[in-house]
Amino acid sequence: MTVVLFGSGWNPLSAVVADFFFQRGELGLVVLPGRAPRTSIGGTVHFLGMLLTAAERGFHLCLSKSNIKRRGRCLSLAEYLNQHSDIQRIRMKGATHTLQAVIEKSGLTGSMTDDLWIVCCVFPQKIPTDLGVSIPMINIHPGVLPENRGPNPYFWALAEGHDTAGITFHSMTAEMDRGEILYRACFPIPRPCSERDLEAITATKLADSLPEFWIDRKKFWKNRKPQSGGTYYPMPTAGHRRIYQRPWVFSAPRT
């Protein structure tokens, strides 16, 4: 069994997935984005909040690099990879880095016809499904599908007053978050709750649900169900945050 993980360097959920497969001895390769994604600033206050988040995760990365922090939960995939230098990793750069090329460069071509799985978790670039062989490709979406598709399910779950949030494992297709559903793990949203809080809760729930999903992954893959209905929510803008009174990642609802 070999897993190729597509993850985001500064995301805690990607770190959870990497740790799970590394501890099982199944993590063959980590693919990181080749460039920063283009996202809406979401207003000055939200932008400052994102800078604080980046500073916090960067500080923990520095602690890890200096060997001051050797244990405890990693706040990002970058921090986890720093603690495990033996994990093979590669950056996906430009259109020339097709999925086929990434796997070939990794040296995993011998596993192409064996038990190889592609797992994506909060990867900010579109992954081309260009393989000529049938390899399961799974995306881990930090929201409930099909009700909450899009790049920031945390914001919209809170802004729309959803009672529950969750994690959805689904097959990867050319359309974002539209693949067939394999498994969902839902949980109630506490009140008050910020996007930052919801991300942390989701990371914990992912650590709990991933083992259960992975044990029966082949059964879930065989019985995957197509999506119908639901809503695609865009990246929230500064206007969205003013309307819903949710200016930045550290904020709780104004009640």
Question: How does this model look, in words?
Answer:
This protein has helices spanning 12-23, 44-65, 77-83, 99-106, 153-159, 195-215, 217-222, 238-244, and strands spanning 2-7, 27-33, 89-92, 116-121, 137-141, 164-171, 181-188. It has a seven-stranded mixed β-sheet with strand order 3-2-1-4-5-6-7, sandwiched between helices. Helix 1 (12-23) packs parallel to helix 3 (77-83) and helix 1 (12-23) runs parallel beside helix 6 (195-215). The longest helix is centred in the N-terminal third of the chain and has 22 residues, at 44-65. The chain has two domains: 1-35 and 42-135, Rossmann fold (3-Layer(aba) Sandwich); 138-255, 3-Layer(aba) Sandwich (Rossmann fold), CATH 3.40.50.12230. With 255 residues, it is of the alpha/beta class. It contains eight helices and seven strands; from the N terminus they run E-H-E-H-H-E-H-E-E-H-E-E-H-H-H. The N and C termini lie far apart (49 Å). 35% of the residues lie in helices and 17% in strands. Helix 1 (12-23) links the parallel strand 1 and strand 2.
Could you outline the blueprint of secondary structure elements for this entry?
Layout: E1 2-7, H1 12-23, E2 27-33, H2 44-65, H3 77-83, E3 89-92, H4 99-106, E4 116-121, E5 137-141, H5 153-159, E6 164-171, E7 181-188, H6 195-215, H7 217-222, H8 238-244
Helix pairs in contact: 1-3, 1-6, 2-3
